[in-house]
Amino acid sequence: QPDTPCNDKEIEVALGRHLQTMGGIANLGAARGIFTRLRTRAAGGQENTPCGDKDIELGLASVFIGTGEWVQFDRLQLDKQLFAGFETCLCFSIRYFRELTEAEDILPSHATLLGKALHWAALAVEGSERTSASCLSQLAHCFRLLSVWPQSNLQALGIKEAKEQEFKYTSELFFGLANDLEPHRQELKKDDFWRVKERKLLALMTGESPCEQGDV
Question: 197: which residues sit within 8 A by CB, 6+ positions away?
Answer without folding.
Answer: 98, 101, 102
